[in-house]
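Something for you to look into today, if you have time. Could you write out one complete protein record for me, on any chain you like? The space below this message is yours for that.
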Amino acid sequence: MSFTKSVGLVVAALAVLLFAAPNASAAGACSAANVTAAKASKRALVRATLCVLNAERARHRLRPLRLNHRLSMAAQRHSRSMARQRFFSHTSLSGASFVDRIRSTGYLSGARSWAVGENIAYGSGRRSTPRSIGSAWMNSPPHRANVLSRSYRSIGIGIVTGTPRGGGGGTYTTDFGRRS
């Protein structure tokens, strides 16, 4: 899901599920792209996800997204909530939107204008790898649009072991942002 705010006006944009990655030239960062969520550290999965998404952006001559601590905090909390409370939505069970969750981290504080978006996904077994999740997003036109959006400069990535349906696998949230 995406939202843009300019001088006090908030405009709802397109809802999308997806994720992002560091520069493809960071060869070691993509080394865990084919590892399942249960078999890699959270840090390795985040780096691999960033690498996979930024490789897609590089193919389209877009600047890489940079990992942002506050966006990552919002994303991690949401992935954890979805897996533990067994729901799958951009809106939390308390009714908070992803904009509310991002705002609560302080990411939007002091910004004159901003754009944010969120993508969510989960998978089990081989479908829980960063490459598999990234491929699914790239094969979905609305999700692909979010990954390839020129609006975003930063990303937060939250990945947890477990899925909203219970059992093994991984749940992914990516929160995208730009502020000025």
Remarks:
- Residues 66 and 103 are 18 Å apart (CA to CA).
- The chain has a mean pLDDT of 86.
